[in-house]
Specification:
single chain; Immunoglobulin-like; six-stranded antiparallel beta sheet; four-stranded antiparallel beta sheet
């Protein structure tokens, strides 16, 4: 039996294959942590600085297209403890076709509240020592209540500064894990717009190139 494919069907099939190819081109990741893809859906924070009206760069399939925000950003999430949420991994990825780099904090349990702000230098909590983080500008992400260690005291993420070398993301370091507060310093090549998103178990921040 002969099956004849009409032209509209062929056109729709070609468009579907093109969309899949564009999605794949925007999902390569670099830096520390597993190579699995970071979350791609954006959930607006419950509070914080107003979002700008400028569109996100890149409108390809698989790219987030939410508005960019200015810093500082503050989001409150009431979290009953115990158990205290734990930062289990920090991952970074380059999205060249989408026009941004991304960093992802994996968190077990409910997402804690957080603040994101620029600092002139990175100070370790609670020692007060200056930490050298790759980059020219520094964002400090403070999460509470949370921790970055197991019950035994063993760290769940690297405590040494990590160099990334991405177009806008230079590196990061865990600057503090003390009394239910975790601080992560992110080094950038320059000041830029950010986009914050949440998914169950993940907090991710996009940095506009």
């Amino acid at each position: 039996m002969r099956v004849t494919l009409n032209p509209p069907f062929l056109f729709r099939a070609a468009v579907a294959m093109l969309a899949l190819g564009l999605t794949a081109s925007c999902s390569s990741h670099a830096g520390s942590g597993p190579a699995s893809s970071a979350p791609s859906a954006t959930i607006a924070p419950s509070s914080g600085a107003p979002a700008s009206t400028s569109p996100a760069p890149g409108s390809l399939a698989g790219c987030d297209t939410g508005s960019w925000q200015s810093v500082p950003v503050t989001v409150s999430h009431p979290v009953p403890v115990p158990p205290v949420p734990v930062v289990t991994a920090i991952r970074a990825g380059a999205h060249p076709a989408c026009g941004y780099d991304r960093i992802v904090l994996d968190v077990s349990g409910k997402l804690p509240g957080y603040t994101i702000r620029y600092v002139d230098r990175v100070i370790a909590d609670p020692s007060g020592q200056v930490i050298t983080v790759p980059g020219a500008r520094f964002l400090l992400v403070t999460l509470r209540p949370t921790q970055a260690h197991k019950a035994s005291g063993q760290p769940t993420v690297s405590t040494a500064p990590v160099s990334l070398g991405l177009p806008i993301l230079s590196g990061y370091a865990v600057a503090g894990d003390f009394e239910g507060v975790v601080t992560v310093a992110i080094g950038l090549r320059s000041s830029t717009g950010i986009r914050v998103g949440e998914l169950p178990g993940h907090l991710f921040i996009d940095f506009r190139r």
